[in-house]
Write a structure and sequence with these properties.
With about 700 residues, the protein is of the alpha/beta class. Among the domains are: about 1-110 and about 300-310, Methane Monooxygenase Hydroxylase, Chain G, domain 1, CATH 1.20.58.310; about 330-500, 2-Layer Sandwich (Endonuclease, Chain A), CATH 3.30.870.10; about 505-670, 2-Layer Sandwich (Endonuclease, Chain A), CATH 3.30.870.10. It has 18 helices and 27 strands. The strands form four sheets. Strands 14, 18, 19, 20, 21, 23, 24, 25, 26 and 27 form a ten-stranded mixed β-sheet that branches. It is globular.
């Protein structure tokens, strides 16, 4: 059969929108705590912003360049844009319907009122707001008029602004002015009062007091607006004399890229809208008239308000890793056997401690690490700096092209260079997305290499929110491979062979295609064959076709794909043996785990790569086998539990839509909660064994 037919695939961008719909479904789910629902709504807004800045912007660039090549689903860039416009407008309407009709009334019942300036403020609140404006906001504002001598101002990407139409008197010509809502001030202003919590957004206070900014003028109308710009950096790496300087230049341009979306308040005065549309060169189809506050990412700040803990999910505290008790010699523990960690159920601290101990250990000769995204106050950066100051050879690959983290990574790269680290900025034309650390240590029996491999970034902040797998090992073969990885990154030398690791862009895709074909052949021979694969996204056509072939041969394939999935299930004679589920919960599913039954001699792999062309062909990625039987069983348990989730799992239907499972008559199982409970139990048992007295240790319950 011809398996590359466009009808066998879902368009990548439309699949992404389905993912945002699944997140929005969590905001609409009445079984979720109220404040968790507003958090999910905020996430949909943040996701949509990035989708416009990158994906929609990229499609517009293709259309403008006359690029008409069809995607795997048979759609040209122009056709994709048209389909997206309709779907995005539907999504935005559903966002604000959820906000206005469902969440606002429930927030008010819970004691939180979000006021608009034209709604009834008490006399005391009115005085407070006006005084707050004069004392805190007015000195920061810069009203900008537009006339023959003052052109329309440059408006920053994602900034919130107020558009004002005014006149100097009856019969006088109408004038336009703009006020940017200052991002340096909190957008949430809490009002004084005894009963409940009442808040008002910053732009509402400015709008209420707008006359004070334009004395001797009659204000005709004031409406908020917000623009989204093309933020997809275009870097000619081959021609760049200095990649760091080139990226710095491009980052500055990001704020002033082409306007690709204009958000305005519903009911905006038509003349004002027409003026904005002309000045910003935005098509009508890219204008969104919003029934509510612009930029719902502000709801994450609302989520952080104190006093509403009973409306939030209980806070989970990551548990200790039993194999790595506090204050232990981490190198001694790793020599006892590989250590597998499941974050955030288990703490990320051992990864930080691994580098900290290496930095202060006189026997450690060298530390080598890749950094893709790190936190703003990273303890790992501090440890690497300390290591360099202690005279160790420290080599760090800082990926400058990590989207929206470029500025942060430039800061870290320069800081590491100043303290004596050897900093590499990645390979020309490729992003280095792999997560690997190598520590070289002198020991009594010679040089030993310790390696950390992971599915997630070296970011101690996101490690509390993202689910990831990490492995600490001193395997000699993996150590050899790790050395080869860094030699390749720093010296462009390709090894003749790899012992255990599989790397993109040269070897990894072939490895996955081989593993899938092996399962297919086992099935054709009547032997046991099964594939379970967990990842963020699946859109590589070759991989999907290989899965279709395996399904045709009778291989049972269960896919756990959080976000984009271009594969279709239930196609007669093609994908009847494939299931796809997406789990959207309190933690963001980020780990990549791949299980191949291999005729009862099953193999499990983890790594940094999704099954996407960019990961398999345009990035440096690492996938590693987990060979210890104990940890293989643990990973299979993790996959199995997620396949049994009946609460947060959204299951793909043959028409490409996703539905939650019917819970009636089923045992309710929430995989993320189960992992929390298991981590607590393991930590309790390990501490009990360590202390010999169960009364001494009482961990926080989930």
């Amino acid at each position: 059969m011809e398996l590359k037919k466009p009808e066998y695939f879902t368009n990548r961008e439309l699949s992404w929108l389905q993912f945002d719909h699944r997140i929005l479904g969590e905001a609409r789910d009445k079984d979720n705590p109220l404040f968790e629902r507003i958090k999910f709504l905020s996430i949909t807004a943040s996701n949509l912003d990035e989708f416009f800045m990158v994906r929609v912007a990229s499609l517009k660039d293709q259309v403008n360049a006359g690029y008409n090549k069809k995607d795997i689903a048979g759609m040209t860039p122009q056709e994709q844009l048209q389909a997206l416009q309709e779907k995005i407008h539907e999504l935005v309407e559903l966002q604000y319907s959820t906000y206005n009709r469902s969440l606002l009334p429930k927030l008010q019942s819970a004691g939180l009122t979000i006021l608009r300036h034209h709604e009834m403020l008490t006399e005391e609140e009115g005085r407070y707001v006006d005084r707050y404006f004069m004392e805190n906001i007015y000195p920061v504002l810069t009203p900008m008029a537009v006339d023959s001598s003052r052109p329309f101002p440059l408006i920053r990407n994602k900034s919130l602004n107020l558009g004002v139409m005014m006149t100097k008197g009856e019969g006088k010509e109408e004038e336009f002015a703009m006020v940017q809502v200052p991002g340096v001030l909190s957008r949430i202003v809490e009002l004084p009062g005894e009963e409940g919590t009442r808040i008002i957004f910053l732009e509402e206070i400015i709008e209420r007091n707008i006359q004070k900014l334009f004395l001797n003028h009659t204000i005709l109308c004031v409406y908020p607006f917000r623009i989204m710009r093309n933020a997809d950096l275009s870097i000619e790496e081959e021609d760049a004399e200095d990649l760091l300087i080139e990226i710095e230049k491009q980052i500055k341009k990001r704020q002033w890229g082409e306007a690709i979306r204009l958000e305005v308040e519903q009911g905006i005065e038509r003349r004002l809208l027409k003026f904005l549309k002309k000045q910003l060169s935005v098509d009508s189809k890219h204008i969104y008239e919003i029934d509510g506050p612009l930029d719902l990412t502000v709801l994450m700040k609302v989520y952080g308000l104190h006093g509403f803990e009973k409306y939030k999910a209980p806070k989970y505290e990551p548990q200790m890793v039993p194999e790595l008790p506090g204050e232990c010699d981490i190198f001694e523990q790793i020599r006892k056997g590989d250590v597998l960690m499941h974050h955030p159920y288990q703490t990320f601290d051992p990864v930080v401690d691994f580098i900290r101990q290496a930095a202060g250990d006189p026997n450690v000769l060298a530390i080598k690490q890749t950094l893709y995204r790190v936190s703003s106050n990273s303890p790992i950066i501090a440890a690497l700096s300390k290591a360099a100051e202690n005279g160790k050879q420290v080599t760090v690959l800082v990926e400058l092209k990590a989207r929206f983290d470029e500025e942060n990574n430039i800061v870290w790269a320069r800081k590491l260079e100043k303290v004596g680290c050897h900093v590499i900025y990645g390979l020309v034309g490729l992003k280095t997305h792999s997560k690997i650390t190598l520590v070289v240590r002198r020991e009594e029996d010679g040089i030993r290499r310790y390696v950390h491999l992971g599915t997630g970034n070296y970011n101690d902040s996101t490690a509390k929110l993202y689910t990831d797998i990490g492995l600490l090992t001193c395997s000699e073969t993996i150590g050899e491979d790790a050395t080869a990885v860094f030699n390749m990154l720093s010296g462009y030398s390709e090894p003749l062979f790899w012992n255990k690791l599989s790397l993109a862009p040269l070897w990894l895709k072939d490895k996955f295609l081989y593993l899938i074909e092996r399962e297919k052949n086992y099935a054709l021979e009547g032997k046991k064959a099964r594939i379970i694969a967990k990842m963020n996204s699946l859109c590589d056509r070759d991989i999907i076709c290989a899965l279709y072939e395996a399904s045709q041969a009778g291989v049972k394939i269960d896919l756990i794909v959080r976000g984009i999935c271009c594969l279709k299930v239930g196609i007669p004679g093609v994908s009847e043996n494939i299931t796809v589920r997406s789990i959207v919960g309190n933690f963001l599913e980020h780990s990549r785990v791949f299980y191949f039954e291999n005729d009862e001699h099953y193999e499990v792999y983890c790594g940094s790569a999704d099954w996407m062309p960019r990961n398999l062909e345009k990035r440096v990625e690492i996938v590693f086998p987990v060979e210890d039987e104990k940890w293989k069983e643990e990973l299979l348990h993790i996959l199995t539990l997620q396949l049994e989730d009946t609460v947060k799992a959204h299951v793909m239907q043959p028409d490409g839509s996703y539905e939650k499972l019917d819970k009636r008559g089923k045992k309710l199982l929430l995989a993320q909660d189960e992992f929390c409970k298991e981590a607590v139990k393991k930590a309790r048992e390990a501490k009990k064994q360590e202390l010999g007295d169960e009364r001494v240790f009482v961990p926080k319950s989930h």
